[in-house]
Each structure stands twice: as C-alpha cells, then as structure tokens.
Amino acid sequence: MVAKIFWGEASRTSEPEILDKVKEIAKVHDTVKDHIPDLLWHHTFTNPTSAIREALGVPDPTTGSRVLYILIFRKLEPITKLHGKQFFDVWRQCILCHLTLWKEGVYHRDVSPGNLMWYWKDGKRMGVLNDYDLSSLANVQGPQGNQRTGTVPFMARELLTEDGQLGKVKHLYRHDLESFIWVFAWISLRYRQGILLPRRLRPFDEWATLGAVACGEKKLVFLDKLTPSAPPDTDSSLWAFLVGCFLVLKMDAENRFYLRFQEPSDSGADQQSNAEESDPDAFLSKFTRSKSWLAYSKPSE
C-alpha cells in the first residue's frame, strides 16, 4: 500500500469524489475497468487553510484555500520500468482509459510519467491512469476548462504559450493526448531497459527547470529539428514511431493555424476542424491510423 498526503484546493472537486465517478464508469466500460487506482481508504480534514487565515486576520482568507487529504492506495509499478512493446502496450491502455473517461465527463488534465502506472493481473500487465487531484468533472461548476493544470514538461505546446498561461486557451482532449506523446518521448529517450540514463546522455533535463513559456519554445525547436534517422543508441523502429506521432502533432497545429486566417468556405474545412475539436475519437485516430503507429503496434514475431 502507498499513502498520498496533499493539500488540495478547497474549491476543486476532491479526488475521492472524482474516483467515485470513475468507478461508476468502470462498471460499464472495459477500457476503464482494471485501469484505475484502487482507493482503499481516505480521510479529509475538516479545517481548511481558510479557517487558519481567518483566525490570523489575513485579508481574503478563502482565496486559494486548501484542504488536507490522506488517501491510501494499493501499490502500483511505475511505467518507467518498462521498455519496448511492453511499454507501448501499457501506455496505450492508459490512453484508452483516459479517452473513455474524457467522453464520460472526467477530465484528467495532468498526464505525466508519474501518473501512468501498471500492475500484474492474470499474467498480463494492466496500465493504470493514476492521480486525479487535478482532474475535473464536466457537470460540476468550479475550476474547469481554462485553468492552467498539468506538469510543464509534458503539457501541450498550446497551453505553454502566454495565452495558455493566462487561461485564454480552453483545455481540450487533444491537449491531454499531446501530453501522452511527450511522455512517450521523455521515457523512451531518457531510459534504456527501464534504467535512467546518466545526465550527459539524456535529453530534456532543462525542460523540467524552465518556465512554461520557455519550455513551450524548447518543444517547438525540438519539433523543427526532427530528423528521420534515429539518434545514437535509439531503436530505429521506436524513433520512427515517435517521428510519426510528432509529424501528426505538427500538421494538426499548422492546419489549425492556417484555418484561423481563412474565410468560411463551402468546402466545410472549418466545420470539420470544429467537429474534430469536440470528437476525441477523431483526433486519436489521426495517430492510430498512421503508418508509424500501425507498424510499431504490431506484435513482435
């Protein structure tokens, strides 16, 4: 078992409440069943920080008020221990769980390596989408769509712009799926056989120390310098898969950029773009139907 102790925002739906909703979804969707954390016990302390601030005479005591939570979960394994097709399979399971939850109104909004876990069941590795303390529910008023949530190195580039950081960009499904791609790259290029490479050999270290906008700029430079050939000591099929995913991201971003400057036309291109914004399956299929995804997802002979 593991304990999670944290101060959560009082204005946000609590993680235990969100997990209750997730469990209900798991009862009717196999993509979620067995792919969520097992909450064994939890306790919420009744005195928020606003009560302490009010007692101390702090102005606006309820602003940013937090509540202390203790949650006990069944222990899981980190996804960084896996590599190759094993890693891909668990990562893909987490994507499908996330997709179903999103369509059912549970928005995770913090896809990162630490939140992708796994365990054994009946001789199979089961991927788990973990950690819902930054999640939100579609039918609940409060901190929601435009709030800046996520772990900076893995956030979508659109959320790492100045507008994104000011809350002017709505957090959409495609942003979380882009985070999954950055997670795959982060782990694949910084680990070998489940072991973290020495600092001099691993990329992206700087991303973890940069501010949001600066990190977004670094990601743009990385995408612009993509090369078809794999970096030294990187599996060529894995690199081809990553390049294919990044090309989808680049082309999608460029299409949306150009559409902003086009007049509405009879071709329906603008309507199609808007439809994809609200259709998670359509956006995911851009990746899953690509040649690189199909090639890499084939079972090893």
From TrEMBL:
UniProt-annotated stretches for the region Disordered: 264-283
Polar residues bias: start-end ranges: 264-275
SUPFAM superfamilies: Protein kinase-like (PK-like) (SSF56112)
InterPro entries the UniProt entry points to: Kinase-like_dom_sf (IPR011009), Pkinase_fungal (IPR040976), Prot_kinase_dom (IPR000719)
Limits of the Protein kinase domain: 1-301
MF annotations from Gene Ontology: ATP binding; protein kinase activity
Pfam family, one: Pkinase_fungal
Entry-linked PANTHER family: FUNK1 11, FUNK1 6
Protein name listed in UniProt: Protein kinase domain-containing protein
Gene source species: Suillus placidus
